[in-house]
Amino acid sequence: MSSTTSQIWTATALVATSLYVGYALGLRSAAARQTELPNAKPAEAHPDTEDEEEEVADGDLSAVKPGFMEPCKLVLVVRTDLGMTPGKIAAQCGHATLACYKALMKTNPDLLRHWELTGQAKIALKGSSEEQLDELEAIAKSLNLCARAIHDAGRTQIAAGSKTVLGIGPELCVRSIGWVAAVARLAPDVGITFRGNDALCADVMLSTFPFTSSSANLIISPPPDPRQALAMTSIALARVYQQSFETHPYTTLALTNGALNALGDFVAQFSQNLIQPPKRDDEGPRYDFNRTARFFAFGLGMGPLIGRWNLLLERHFPLRKHHPYFGQVGNVSLRALGKRVAADQLIMAPVGLAIFLGSMGIMEGRDKRHIQEKYQDLFRPLIAANWQVWPLAQLINFRFMPLPYRVPFQSTCGVFWTLYLSITNSKENEVEDQRDGLRQTLDS
Fold first, then answer.
1. Which of 9, 91, 125, 221 can pair with 195 through a Cys bridge, CB separation 3.0 to 4.6 Å?
2. pLDDT digits over 324-362, tens only?
3. How far apart are CA 152 and CA 159, in angstroms?
4. Across-strand partners of 193?
């Protein structure tokens, strides 16, 4: 490896390491800012507002450590003896949810974040009396669950100070089912349904809270469909990406685009090893990690550039008319959509291809003559192939994908395009090596 190539790789490694460290520190500092609260005196409860009550001391709310994609739920127990209307119940459930959220934000932010990323599941149950809610609250706190009871302000429908809703959680599956089992023991007339993974948790908790399935109307569903687990994982990943994009947009685009470019080269090399077996029997399949790293570095640099380009197209060619109060309204303008695709293919596609050929030549340690030959041999056929494939993909991208997801969508479609570019660039390198060998033979 030449000294120039070594310097380029050193610089690339430093840039990638700096981006990763900055991204990790940024997430950590953002989480710290969200969890730290100023040392201020607690505000006095206003007599006309709903209030959450803590009659029983909390357990160790920070002891729970969620596992990866472990089911997590918030349980809301609503009193039915008060005769509240659906609107009133919805408002009281909102108060209970917010009370539990604020409590865990101070004591267990990791569990709260896990609940948010796994879909913010909620379960609503019936409570027959205030005494029942009091006993459930005590049981929940004895299990180290977050429990918050809401007392109504008395402005509408019911008397002031009435306990309306008890919020429990968010909590993991086993503990939540333990609490629901306690509900069934105290109120056998309440219908309870366990579905999916909850059924497995119910079997664990039956010995602790004995009750018959007939008295609690217990329904145990079949094991969860793997497609549901895949859907939950996809939702969680989308939420992680969205939150990362909102806090660190260009770092997120850079890492996402770089990873997908590296994936494309990995597929390309794997395919080449299958199609082209080793020339000698004693030679096994070879994998060029430096080549994959070059594609990662190229995607790392192009991600923020493509993100800025998409934002520019969004501003100059809006698909819908902008209303000062209602935002974007009306039907999609096909003319504006066509302008976006045309601008992308006539401006960004040639620029991106030129950057690809030049950056690959530089990272491979090629001199100026080799890079010029690469341009002469590859630019025209590659741009022609680009115009045969990408207009339709970009039409779908600009029409249906939200702005934060356009670069990942383009990069995902580009895995196959990167496969094509990687194989083409590799073949061109072999041609250049053959030319160099021929020149050396003629010179000698």
1. 221
2. 666 667 788 899 999 999 999 999 999 999 999 899 889
3. 7
4. 219
Name the pTM for this structure.
0.54
- 124 vs 90, 127, 153, 158, 201, CA distance in Å? 11, 10, 22, 20, 18
| Cβ-Cβ contacts under 8 Å for 416 (sequence gap 6 or more) | 264
Do residues 410 and 306 make contact, with C-beta atoms less than 8 angstroms apart? yes
Residues contacting 307, CB < 8 A, separation 6+:
249, 250, 253, 407
- Domains parsed from the chain with CATH numbers: 51-229 (3.40.1490.10), 248-443 (no CATH)
Short-list 162, 43, 65, CA closest to 114: 65
How does pLDDT run across 174-197, given as a tens digit for each residue?
444 455 555 555 444 444 444 434
Residue closest to 303 by CA, chosen among 431, 382, 408 = 408
Residue 302 CB contacts under 8 Å (≥ 6 apart), including other chains: 257, 261, 352, 355
